[in-house]
Design goal:
Radius of gyration: 19 Å
Number of domains: 1
Oligomer: single chain
Strand order of the largest sheet: 1-12-7-2-3-4-13
CATH architecture: 2-Layer Sandwich
Order of helices and strands: HHEEEEEEHEHEEEEHHHEHEEEH
């Protein structure tokens, strides 16, 4: 899934940077290449950290459907990341990295979640990025969940396809045959190594599958788990040129908030050096029901349960 590529960058650096000198060089060399987003956080009041906290870091990660013919994220972007009404957050995830560097919890927030958007009333959560860019998206998620976001990362469709191709494709097991009439793509049961176009269609599919948006989230989480396994298993000092190509691909495609320094990236990398996909817990924001609102399909979240669940994650009490 395209939204957690920042985590992928850290994992790659963790495998490569086995010595202190390599750690310093790697995070500065590649960290300098990561595109920074100015003013990614709201200027008003923000949620405080809970009194009981595990000392970890919380990221809000977004994949945007800019539909631009030119890249909008990464250091090779030639189009604006955000323009009013031109992009929506197609994928949205909260990721909490435990301070021990050995656990990660990821919660997907469905794009069809009907939520309050500051200054705009209630709408689908994916409209927040369209109306106000990163800052309004962060503000919307923080007010919805009560979570204080430490860092923000984003990637567009161009970046997702480029990174998937750079790692040589990602193996995905498709449970059963399906056809997405909107994307006009057939998926056949079995295990396939998916490259850019096919992988993007798979993580976007919500038509032709019984669970709709929830099946799409399952596809995204499945893709992420497999991507993490590929990165962990294939990157090593025995293939420095291949590793450099992957790192270059990630830095070309992902953008992060300008509060994330190279030092922050280095600390993240050091903390994640033992992490793999089996250490990551994948969840989805709890849903009460679906309904039609103003002619739109919408999901109603169980906000108290969501906040309790995330509080348990932040305090280390989640199983």
């Amino acid at each position: 899934m395209r939204a957690v590529l920042l985590l992928g960058l850290a994992l790659l650096l963790a495998v490569v940077g086995l010595g202190a000198g390599a750690v310093w060089w790697g995070t500065n060399h590649y960290g300098d290449q990561v595109a920074r987003i100015p003013d990614a956080f709201p200027s008003g009041p923000r949620p405080p950290e809970p009194t009981a906290h595990d000392g970890g870091t919380t990221f809000l990660l977004a994949g945007v459907d800019s539909r631009s013919e030119r890249p909008t994220t990464g250091n090779e972007a030639t189009a604006r990341l955000w323009k009013y009404g031109a992009q929506r957050s197609d994928t949205l995830m909260l990721v909490h990295l435990g301070a021990d560097g050995r656990t990660t919890c990821l919660m997907s927030i469905p794009r069809d979640s009907w939520v309050p958007i500051p200054g705009h009333g209630s709408a689908k959560v994916n409209a927040a990025f369209s109306w106000g860019g990163p800052a309004l998206l962060v503000q919307t998620v923080e007010q919805l969940t009560g979570v204080r976001v430490d860092h923000f990362g984003v990637i567009d469709w161009h970046g997702f396809k480029a990174l998937t191709d750079a790692v040589g494709g990602v193996p995905i097991t498709v449970a059963e045959d399906s056809y997405d009439p909107v994307l006009e793509w057939h998926f056949t049961a079995g295990t396939h190594v998916m490259h850019g176009e096919e992988a993007l269609a798979y993580v976007r599919q919500r038509h032709g599958v019984p669970g709709g948006e929830l099946d799409r989230i399952k596809h995204q989480q499945q893709f992420l788990r497999s991507l993490m396994t590929e990165i962990r298993g294939e990157v090593s000092l025995t293939d420095p040129l291949g590793t450099a190509r992957m790192l270059d691909a990630i830095t070309r495609t992902v953008s992060v908030d300008d509060r994330m320094s190279n030092s922050d990236l280095r600390d993240l990398m050091l903390g994640l050096r033992h992490l793999d996909a089996s250490d990551t817990t994948f969840t989805t924001a709890p849903i009460v029901r679906s309904e039609m609102i103003r002619g739109q399909y919408a999901l109603i979240l169980d906000i108290p349960a969501l906040r309790d669940q995330w509080r348990a994650i932040e305090t280390g009490a989640a199983s």
